Amino acid sequence: MSQVNVQDPSNSTRRPSATSVAEDIVGSVEEDIVLGRLHPRERLVEEDLIERFDCKRHVVRQALFQLESIGLVERIRNRGAFVKAYTPEEVEQLYAMREILELAGVDALPLPAPERWLSELEDIHQRYSAAVDAHDLRRVFHLNIAFHRTLFAATGNPYLYETINEFAQKAHGIRFIAIADSHSLSRARHEHQAMIEAIRQQDRHALRELCRQHLLPSKNRYLELHPSNR
Description:
The chain is mainly α and 230 residues long. Helices cover 68% and strands 4% of the residues.
């Protein structure tokens, strides 16, 4: 009896799904915005994205829709998609919401803190600090997200946690100025360490103030450089 050669599906070469490619586009464009490779009001050309990611137009449009829903891109009828440029009023409103949410998050954190949670925060902070020293801005960006998500994951409230992350992500189009500034990075590193110490000391009041102050540099720098203030 002849044997049938059945190919192992795990060994076959498959093109990534449209959803995964769209997610890759979203992540890459988000990085480009945060790291200053794309600037407010800069147009996102569909043909360029199609070529860059070797995908179909509908996949690029799906990604642009997701970026718009996040708040990083705005689509203008008959003109296309552009990196969102926030007005001063929008920045103030966005950061007012971030402060409300993050202070509520601090109030919900468990103190005294579980040692495993603190150890995870300290590990991320050490890697963040090394990335700052190496001026590896891509790793700085991702490890900063990891630090704050790990911090607020301990609230135990998934709705609060998701909303904090949602509004933090909306602010990525504002943070691009501060992330490339060495003074801002040094300050952020110091504040992360101070947050860990406040948790260890069970000082919720100090932690609230640190989280509130931590929001200010990106917001203030964006407002200082806004065309309306020049």
